[in-house]
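stage 2 :: seqdesign
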């Protein structure tokens, strides 16, 4: 709870995953009074393994958390692809499905671990309002008046939507999600399951008959005490189910992945009772402007690249650093800062969204080669992909504020 006297402009951030707490960290350091509101009762558990890459590594170092991120990385040693009977078709100790090139300096870490690290690094001066959310907001030239679902009404100088692909803040201020979302043609669910395969810093991928992205990947986490299961399929049409209807989402995944291929029946059974569950389409958000008045969007809420980009975490952490830095540089003048934030990041965001499309095409080609046991062809595709990807990742240089 923030009990100190207000030290600067009052900022409300909606969302406590990666982008929101990262921005809170930097705004607090720059003298702003920061509140983060999060619908969940605590930092959300579960989620996929995510990657801190390129300029985000520099941001993490400036936050003083780089060492802890490396210490808590998933530490994958490689991957296998298996057929319906569990026979290995392909193996690599050079790359993985989830993290890519194992020889890179990138850090692959569980989403909930990274969120907890960033929240803790922010310190006690940052106020977190868990189990609440924005119900409505009104803004004028002087402030934004926010009505919460549970707490009392408050006023802020600025409001930041860092609440993900289905951002409620974006809908309230900019309009329906349908105006901005672009579906990429595949869906994925992630949940925590027992390490029933006995994997040791390893992941196993299975592509079900019929081609496409239909199948599963299981990776050991937390030194083999748990595993995370990824369940993927290509829907015939864009998914329209309620993104908060967990029961309905699990039914959908079970229908799409029905069959006795490999361990799919057991994975679907474990999914039903998993302690956490995350599901969504692989989609992007494209907007001409990330701000309107005193409200601005950050990370997936404004420019989601989809998991296929492999850059969502990096764009969130770098975006937070830049937005906070521009607000500091503009001495709190939001109009100047939001314009500079857009100008600074627009090209980098565009490049990363484009690489998601390339990654999807190459990944489908790799799957075909891996499933067919063509190791040399699969490795050649992966090498070409890694070179192009690395060029995009490192194309942004973090500046000082």
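stage 2 :: out
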């Amino acid at each position: 709870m923030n009990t100190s006297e207000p030290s600067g402009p009052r900022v409300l951030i909606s969302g406590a995953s990666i982008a929101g707490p990262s921005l809170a960290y930097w705004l607090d350091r720059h003298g702003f009074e920061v509140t983060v509101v999060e619908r969940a009762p605590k930092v959300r558990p579960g989620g996929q393994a995510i990657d801190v890459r390129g300029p985000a590594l520099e941001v993490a170092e400036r936050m003083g958390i780089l060492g802890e991120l490396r210490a808590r990385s998933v530490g994958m040693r490689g991957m296998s692809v298996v057929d319906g009977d569990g026979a290995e078709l392909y193996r690599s100790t050079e790359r993985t499905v989830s993290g890519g090139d194992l020889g890179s300096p990138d850090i692959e870490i569980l989403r909930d671990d990274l969120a907890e690290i960033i929240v803790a690094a922010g310190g006690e001066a940052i106020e977190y309002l868990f189990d609440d959310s924005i119900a409505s907001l009104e803004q004028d030239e002087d402030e934004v008046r926010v009505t919460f679902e549970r707490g009392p009404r408050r006023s802020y100088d600025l409001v930041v939507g860092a609440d993900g692909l289905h951002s409620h803040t974006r809908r309230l201020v900019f309009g329906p999600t349908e105006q901005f979302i672009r579906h990429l043609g595949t869906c994925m669910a992630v949940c925590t399951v027992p390490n029933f395969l006995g994997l040791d810093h390893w992941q196993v991928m299975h592509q079900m008959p019929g081609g496409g992205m239909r199948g599963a990947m299981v990776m050991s986490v937390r030194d083999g005490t748990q595993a995370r299961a990824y369940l993927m399929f290509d829907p015939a049409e864009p998914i329209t189910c309620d993104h908060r209807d967990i029961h309905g989402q699990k039914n959908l995944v079970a229908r799409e992945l029905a069959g006795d291929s490999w361990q799919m029946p057991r994975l679907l059974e474990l999914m039903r009772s998993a302690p956490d569950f995350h599901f969504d389409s692989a989609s992007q958000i494209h907007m001409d402007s990330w701000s309107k008045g005193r409200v601005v969007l950050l990370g997936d809420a404004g420019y989601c690249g989809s998991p296929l980009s492999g850059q969502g975490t990096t764009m969130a952490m770098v975006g937070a650093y830049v937005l906070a830095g521009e607000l500091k540089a503009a001495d709190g003048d939001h109009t100047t800062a939001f314009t500079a934030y857009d100008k600074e990041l627009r090209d980098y965001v565009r490049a990363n969204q484009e690489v998601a499309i390339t990654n999807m095409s190459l990944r489908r080609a790799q799957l075909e080669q891996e499933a067919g046991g063509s190791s040399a062809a699969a490795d050649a595709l992966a090498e070409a992909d890694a070179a192009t990807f690395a060029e995009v990742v490192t194309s942004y240089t973090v500046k000082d504020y």
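stage 3 :: structure notes
- The chain has a mean pLDDT of 92.
- The longest strand covers residues 181-193.
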